[in-house]
Amino acid sequence: MSQLVLIGAGGHGRGTLEILKARRRAGYEVPEIAGFVDDSADDGDRSIGGVPLLGKVEWLLRRVDDGYQAIIALASSAAKKKIAQRLDQRGIAWQTAVHPSAIIGEGTSIGAGAIIGAGVVIAYDTVIGCHTTINLNATVGHDCRIGDYSTVAPGVNITGNVSLGECVEIQTNATLVPGLVIGREVGIGPGSVVLRDLAEGQQVFGNPARPVPTPTKVTR
Questions:
Q1: CATH annotation of 3-95
Q2: Model-level pTM?
């Protein structure tokens, strides 16, 4: 069986490791976890959650031909996209991580490299993009389109027929009403209630959500 490398050794990486451990306990086949790589990690040998820190992302780039699989376990949409594009050029195989407690509706597809956390509910006929994270207890309604590299934080409620562009970041407990179209690289602050479509690059916060002067980003 191929070995799996987790890209990102912060909180998001630890959470992804817990998803993989839960899958193994539930009887699912999970690749052997080789370890973490992280460009912000300190040099030197150490362990994170009982899994070794192998080095920086360059460690994996030098070993793609050895058959490693990977998951990008980062919250930053921009960072996920940048790393994915580098590794796609090398032909790496991406693994998904779906917690066994997640409920996935009929006709829903989950893209390569996606991460679906514990307690997540995704309704029917929805598309989850590549390298997108749907975090703890978030809900995604029917017939939604969640763009590549997006990050949906814990407790977010995306209702039916919502379309998100790529690299959207939605913070904790935000709500999106039905039928919205959200442009690429939009940031939605914690607890916000989004009632209208949002254009590319908008950063919003509040109830109802309004533009803010500085970007609202999901923390790593």
A1: 3.40.50.20
A2: 0.93
